[in-house]
């Protein structure tokens, strides 16, 4: 018995080492690809294989980064965009989950809303930008609303589908014990769909960034989206690429945070 336990422990340790080694290998190749990409970009720019005016170079972007960091403008624009994105991301996700719960709670209402959801999902939400800005005014609220609207419909559809796909046998068991609709939702439906909700969060990270950056294109005088459009207007594409790289890094960090939250929730579960 003791020998069996020892063997199981060894197998478990071996499995953990294998997982760790695989993660290190993946990270290694991710770093190599990034280094290769930036090195190739720099060389192509210096040898004038690409137009330096349009595509700039990593060294120019790095120099601009240090300048913006030193004069404090990077932190200012970054805070504005990050605040708008996080607000749009949270509001879009919460509104989507609540609306999905409403659809699940009232089946007839969901049947009525079904074609409207399909139409709203197919509609390019970015095109609503000018209307939102006129309705809510040029400012933080309209930009956050853009970040929210672009993710709320897809969140609703995905999570409502997940609610409906919960094993009906669980519902029958709960009904057998006399559970009401709220208890069924609280004890079965919602816990069973947490993995889907987390997956939707990952998708919403990207969608919230798209909505906010488009909103800043249209109306803002601050934020990373504003820097992109300003760089385009004055033909400073180093500024455009600098802003894009900052957005990419921030979006990756938000995605990693959601993944960490997912791991923690799964372990707790």
Describe the structure.
With 269 residues, this protein is an all-alpha fold. The chain has twelve helices and no strands. It has helices spanning 2-46, 52-55, 58-71, 73-105, 107-122, 129-136, 140-164, 168-176, 181-192, 194-218, 224-233, 237-268. Helix 4 (73-105) crosses helix 10 (194-218), helix 10 runs parallel beside helix 11 (224-233) and helix 10 (194-218) packs antiparallel against helix 12. The longest helix has 45 residues, at 2-46. The radius of gyration is 24 Å and the shape is flat. The chain starts with a helix and ends with a helix. The mean pLDDT is 89.
Question: Strand count, sense and closure of the main sheet?
Answer: none
Question: Uncertain regions: pLDDT < 50 for 5+ in a row?
Answer: none
Distance between the termini: 30 Å
Strand and helix order:
HHHHHHHHHHHH
